[in-house]
Amino acid sequence: MKIYTKTGDKGLTSLIGGTRVSKSHFRIDAYGTLDELNSWVGLLRDHSTNEQERDILYQVQEAIFVAGSHLAKEPDKEVPIPAFPSGLTETLEAEMDRMDAELPSLRNFILPGGHPTVSYCHISRTICRRAERHVVEIESSSDYYTDIIVFLNRLSDYFFMLARFWSMQLNIDVVTWIPRK
After folding, report:
1. What is the Cα–Cα distance from 38 to 151, expressed in whole angstroms?
2. Among residues 58, 69, 76, which one has the least CA distance to residue 19?
3. Which residues, including other chains, have CB under 8 Å from residue 46's CB and lie 6 or more apart?
4. All domains of the chain, ordered by start, with CATH?
5. How far apart are CA 99 and CA 60, in angstroms?
6. pTM of the predicted model as reported, rounded to 2 decimal places
7. In three state form, how does the secondary structure of the chain look?
8. Partners of 177 in the beta sheet?
9. Residues with Cβ within 8 Å of residue 128, at least 6 apart in sequence
10. CB atoms within 10 A of CB 34
11. What is the pLDDT of residues 2-49, one digit of tens each?
12. Alpha carbons 66 and 64: distance in angstroms, whole number
C-alpha cells in the first residue's frame, strides 16, 4: 500500500464522514496538535524505565488517538469510532497523588529544564495545553468533548508532576523562578 494518496496536494483533507476541509481548518489543527503530543508522549515512554509509567503513558497514547478520532469526525455524521476511555483521568490523578507524596512541597514556579527527559515532560505539558485550548475552542458549541477537555487538563498536570518526579529521581536540582526586583 502506498502511503501517499495525492488527495491533499491542494491543501485539503477529509474529516471522518467525508467532508473536505482546508488543512488549516480548526479541527485539523486540533487533532494535528494531539498527533504532535502523541509523538512526545512516545518519547517520554521510550525514556521511562518504570513499567508502570510506561503502561500509563501507553494508555495515554491510546486515549490521544481516540480523542483525535473524535475531533476528526464530523459531529453530525453517524460514523463508528471508539468511545473515549473512562477511568484514565482518575488513573492520572492517582499517579499524581502518589508522586506528590514523595515530592517536596512546591512554593514557587519552576523553570523547565535540568535534564533532557525532564524537558521532554515540560514540552509535552505545553503541547497538551495547546491541544486543550483548541478543543475548548471547538467545544464552545456543544458538550460533546467535555471528557476530552478534562482528560487533557489533567494530563498536562500529570506531565508537570512527572517532570518534578523525574527531577527528584535523577537528583536534578529544580530551578525555581523568583522574579527580579
Report:
1. 14
2. 76
3. none
4. 17-177 (1.20.1200.10)
5. 17
6. 0.92
7. CCCCCCCCCCCEEECECCCEEECCCHHHHHHHHHHHHHHHHHHHHHHCCCHHHHHHHHHHHHHHHHHHHHHHECCCCCCCCCCCCCCHHHHHHHHHHHHHHHCCCCCCEEECCCCHHHHHHHHHHHHHHHHHHHHHHHHCCCCCCHHHHHHHHHHHHHHHHHHHHHHHHCCCCCEEECCCC
8. 109
9. 37, 152, 155, 156, 159
10. 29
11. 888 887 778 888 888 888 887 888 888 999 999 999 999 999 999 999
12. 5
Q: What is the mean pLDDT of residues 105-121?
A: 93
Residue-wise pLDDT for 115-145, tens only, equals 999 999 999 999 999 999 999 988 766 667 8
User: Can you tell me the distance from the alpha carbon of 165 to that of 146, in angstroms, rounded to the nearest whole number?
Assistant: 28
Per-residue pLDDT band at 1 (split at 50, 70, 90) = confident
